[in-house]
Amino acid sequence: MQILRLTAVAAVSVLAVACGRQEPPAPPKAEPKAEAKAEATKKAEPLKVGFVYVSPIGDAGWTTQHNRGREQMQAALGDKVTTTFVEKVPEGADAERVIRDLASQGHRLIFTTSFGFMNPTLKVAEEFPDVKFEHATGYKRAANVGTYNVRFYEGRYAAGLLAGKMTKTDTLGYVGAFPIPEVLQGINAFTLGARSVNPKVQVRVIWVNSWYDPGKERDAANALIGQGADIVTHHTDSSAVVAAAEEKGKMAIAYHSDMARFGPKSQLAAVTHHWGEYYTRTAQSVLDGSWKPGNLWGGMKDGMIKVEAFNESVPKDVVELVNAKAAAIRAGEFHPFTGPIATNDGRQVAAKDVALTDEQLGQMDFYVQGVVGKVPAAGK
User: Fold this and answer.
1) How far is CA 362 from CA 138, 149, 180, in A?
2) 152-265+302-362: what CATH class?
3) What residues does each domain of the chain span?
4) What CATH number does the domain located at 44-150+276-298 have?
5) Three-state secondary-structure class, residue 88
6) What is the pLDDT of residues 239-253, one digit of tens each?
7) Residue 368 burial (C-beta neighbours within 10 Å; 0-12, 13-18, 19+)
8) Do 44-150+276-298 and 152-265+302-362 share a fold?
9) Cβ contacts of residue 257 below 8 Å, gap of 6+?
10) For 190-241, what is each residue's pLDDT tens digit?
């Protein structure tokens, strides 16, 4: 009985303690700081990516290819990104305004796709240090500005082989935008390729001082045809040169895009640009926090430039020749600017079996032997 009484007393004591000394409820969890909330929301939102285009998107040309790259990136990354583009943006003050607007609207990655957007891009980048900028074809970088370009001259050399084999007048025409190193590399590589299979070839150049002016491009092509060119090509954005060749019954090599729809008989082939994989890779690097301001100079080995869309009129052995040279370039077995190379006024710039360096290519300001005339001063 004594044991039962003690047990009962103990039970009552425990009950009393339990009822009289309840544990206080756990404090509510602290709300996350506003900054943390904002960061979490930002991470959950898709990456806003902006593109600035110098010419209309159109059906073919420089901007068409960049826009196709944007679409490829959008398809590859799905709802992780949203994209915006502004087309027909003049180089200069208008470009600065457009780039600033995109940054102000929350775009965290902005691609500016023309050489003349370089300084506007850098200026806006200073104002928006948290935004990542990528400038096409430029050479100035910053902590939040990277550059990217393609070795267009690789495709130009291979296309020159084609032109050298197909010309009947030994005169080729070239419509150029501005006399900057990138364009001069293309003219010179095209000439070197043509003369490697046809030493009699001469290349005539007309400058239009515009990236996109179909009227001027067409007039320049017609003038070159009038000077005896039976094959014309261009470093401008529209399809006007190919269309002019079609109208005149001449041949053309398209640039940027396959332009056969504008010259089904005239287009012998096209030197095409491919940006989608680079855009996808760059956007993904921003998403995962690994982006750094780089300086890409891609080429055939990266799949960024190709010679394709051969006309059925091109003999099979010529197609094979061009494809074999392209394969050698991709494999690193051949450099288009391998000496001996001399300017058209007789100055040697590369000795036999010596290739021009990237630094030399980036400062190119001359015509090689086979190009007629003198390089004008920029803007002339």
Assistant:
1) 10, 11, 9
2) alpha beta
3) 44-150+276-298, 152-265+302-362
4) 3.40.50.2300
5) coil
6) 999 999 999 999 999
7) buried
8) yes
9) 60, 61, 64, 65, 239, 270, 272, 273
10) 999 999 999 999 999 999 999 999 999 999 999 999 999 999 999 999 999 9
